[in-house]
Design goal:
The chain is α+β, with helices and mostly antiparallel strands and 482 residues long. 39% of the residues lie in helices and 18% in strands. Bound molecules: zinc ion and manganese (II) ion.
Amino acid sequence: MIDAEVIVGLEVHCQLDTKSKLFCGCSTDYRDDGPNTHVCPICLGLPGTMPGINKRAIEYAIKVAKSLNCTVIPESEFARKNYFYPDLDKAYQITQYDKPLAEGGYIEIEGDDGKERKIQLTRIHVEEDPGRLVHMGNAERGRYSLVDYNRAGIPLIEIVSEPDMQSPKEARKFLNKLRATLEYLGVFDSEKEGSLRVDANISLRGNNRVEIKNISSYKGVEKALTFEVTRQKNLIRRGLTVERETRHYIETRGITQSARSKEMENDYRYFPEPDLRPLHVQSWVKDIALPELPDARRERFVTQYSCSLNHARTLTGELKMANFFETVVAGDQKNLCSLAATWIADTLAGELNYRNMGIDTVDPKLFAGVLVLLKNGTITDKSGIEVLRVVLDEHLKGEMVETPDAIVKRLNLAKTAGDDGALLAAIRQVIAENPKAVEDYKAGKSGALNFLVGQTMKKTRGCADPGELNQLMVTTLKTMEH
Ligand code: ZN
Ligand code: MN
């Protein structure tokens, strides 16, 4: 395989979660309403209308710029980007061109080598979202498309990175970190469909650059880039050229496909927006306060709760997960910290993912209840998972959720103690049922003990403490020898 260096740069469009649109008073919350119901002469771009700037949107954009270490430019300017497309009814987009809101900055990620790395940013600018095309049938073979302008005029920030990432995985980490930062700032709703859209540039060093347009999911970005790395390496290996082009990511098939050739910048004939005055934000910037951001919270989790760096990273990587952790260990539950970190970051995250559930649907009190049972030795880890699954499934079905104590009672999951007759009885039964394994054990075959222990574990349905069981099995076998 060709071991060429991978170079990735991203352009990320994020919707700012304001109540009204960027240049008019139309509401941005159209989720429950029909198409073209949140529109007015301004966001429809009718002749003679005048845009007015949404102050909150600019405040949000400045917050993002400050938290990503950018330099906010004292005087920035809106510009018209001219092109025709059915979702852009006025045939230009109001955006920022040569005088963007902010320049420079960086996002810190854990690089593929495990070390923290700063991914440099080029700029952040503010612009309006176009409308949305709804293809009847599908995008390639649909007979016609409808257009919905509810989205037209929603405030966006476009964050442009330097070509600083070295793998598809680093690109995903960049996006995760960006999303976390936006969530912590309270300026972004990651659950809104299409709230984050990505154009990705990728090249193998010394070869042409390919742009993949409009990827609308986080996982999609990593998948599309991974597909491109393989495609480009195969071309090069066969002595062919990687064309400089724009490609689309076909989510359903996991591939990229050649699209139109890229417009050159001067095709857009940018010029300053004559209906808007330049933005002067200098006196405002320092008054805009920032909340605790993901990196700071991660460090705090390490010092305050003695979380491992990895757990702290996972827990603080999502605002809701970080909040959930702190609710679980609040007050007199401080002694649950290390259990909570492991069980949230590893077990709960996996179980939620499997059920496609959000962590905010889980009652932190019930979850803490499971941890208490683990902590005081009432149940084994294996039973802990079982109890957790019952809790989640009951949540999912909208049923009344039992307390962990009740679940343990109902399913008889309490740990079988070592001096308990039940465990000894189970061991004796297994020994009686498996004479061959007992022979093997006496002959010194090491696998035989594991087999006998495993059989007993099955009989106790995972309620036995593995250490105790192991020891008791060995003693029982020994006493039999005499
Ligand atoms: Zn409007
Ligand atoms: Mn843009």
